[in-house]
Write a structure and sequence with these properties.
mainly alpha, 4 helices, two-stranded antiparallel ribbon, flat, DUF4133
């Protein structure tokens, strides 16, 4: 008997759904869940249903367009790199050369 094996050619590729890549799928999903909860809260507070629908639809369209723009602008890791870059210091100050002299002495001993 011959067996048929399919090769998964998507190994090590990021998840993509209709143009959204990687973490942007989760951002969109969480945003839509948040909009659903907002709709329920507004409706339970007694806001007119048409006002709720109009507001949620507008926010939903803004969320989808914004998420797609972020995905296309920054790509798979770009937004995380941008956030990480914010936490880097502008400069490093050292009052002593002791640390660097100590490092240099260690590298010569290892060779």
């Amino acid at each position: 008997m011959s067996s048929v094996y399919f090769i998964n050619k998507g190994i090590n590729k990021s998840i993509e759904f209709r143009g959204l890549r990687a973490q942007y799928i989760a951002y969109l999903a969480l945003g839509l869940v948040g909009l659903l909860i907002l709709f329920v809260v507004l409706y339970m507070m007694g806001v007119n249903a048409y006002v709720c629908l109009t507001l949620i639809t507008g926010l939903g369209v803004t969320l989808v367009i914004g998420t797609f723009r972020l995905s296309h602008k920054y790509g798979k890791y770009g937004l995380m790199k941008k956030r990480a870059r914010r936490s880097l210091p502008d400069c490093l100050k050292s009052r002593s050369r002791k640390l660097f002299i100590h490092l240099k002495a260690k590298t010569h001993d290892q060779h």
